[in-house]
UniProtKB/TrEMBL annotation:
It is an enzyme of class 3 (hydrolase). This is adenosine deaminase. It comes from Acaryochloris marina (strain MBIC 11017). One of its GO terms (biological process) is inosine biosynthetic process. Residues 5-320 form the Adenosine deaminase domain. Its cofactor is Zn(2+). GO terms for molecular function: adenosine deaminase activity; metal ion binding.
Amino acid sequence: MSLYAELHRHLGGSVVPRILWRYFKRNRPDLAKPFADYPQFEEFYCRPRESLAEYLELHTLVESVQTRETLPYFIYRLIRGAYVFENLAYMEMRYTPYLRTSDQLSQTERIDQTAEIVEIVGQASQVKEYPIVTSQILCMHARLPYEVNRAIVEIAAQMPEYVCGIDLAGGDDLYCDRMDEFVDLYAYARSLNLKTTCHLYETEGGAHPELLPYLMRIGHGIQIPLQHPELLPAVAQRRQCLEICPTTYLKTGTLQSIQQLQVVFDRCFDAGVDVAICTDNAGLHNVRLPFEYETLLTQDVISFDQLRACQENAFRHAFAWPLNQGPAAILNDVLNWAPAALKPTRATVAT
């Protein structure tokens, strides 16, 4: 059995459609009313969109119901599903905590409540019956003002028991007009010893090389090998890992076929750039992390050797994985330590 590390999962897009539908029916019938039944809702929720901008609008649907009161409900089900159905040993959950605060408050009051949201998520993630190592990545947002984004960075630095890094989300085509702000925020984050990733080079409009020197990982980054392969040597030199989320590019219309990712993987491996495979929005996609690996393999996008390398990369580049080796090495140590009487033999296997 393989154990997996998930480096790129949005809290807003992590709710699988049936759980979200059940919540709507029980608690928000106004949100369920436009749909005749569950199949119609699932079709709406999971269908491909015309663009990344249209796709991101779905996050607002979930963000509106992920409140202080309901976050434990959704997170428990996320952890349970990740452990039981995905074999996750490690998961980083990313989201913009400010967008889970009450919009009835002033900006200052919402910033104060942001830290409370982070604590709620952190405590709700500690589910003893489903032991997964978890941590949070706090997302700045392209549509939020500088003061709020800076506060998010500071909260991340103040809460290392719950937070392992920061990100910038909201559509990478929106960064241009505020690039000086975002460079300043990332420089500030690094000065606070925060680990960093960023939604970057996901779409053709998301090429912002100014941010690359401040990053430890790159959220998506597929346009680097596809459109800007000259950047790959520098990415490799900085030991930056690309967080590749295969299903996302089909759902957003960024790619027309999963086979187009073969160029991404081949060029990255040839250049010595590490790649981790992720789900991004497992709920919106109705997909689980092992299936992402399986699809890439069965569609001849990656080889078995590349698959194993991506599995190892995910643990090696995880911001909060507490060990210097992956779980496979730990299990091998256990098997080597086990008394001879407990070790399987050819004879016992045959019976």
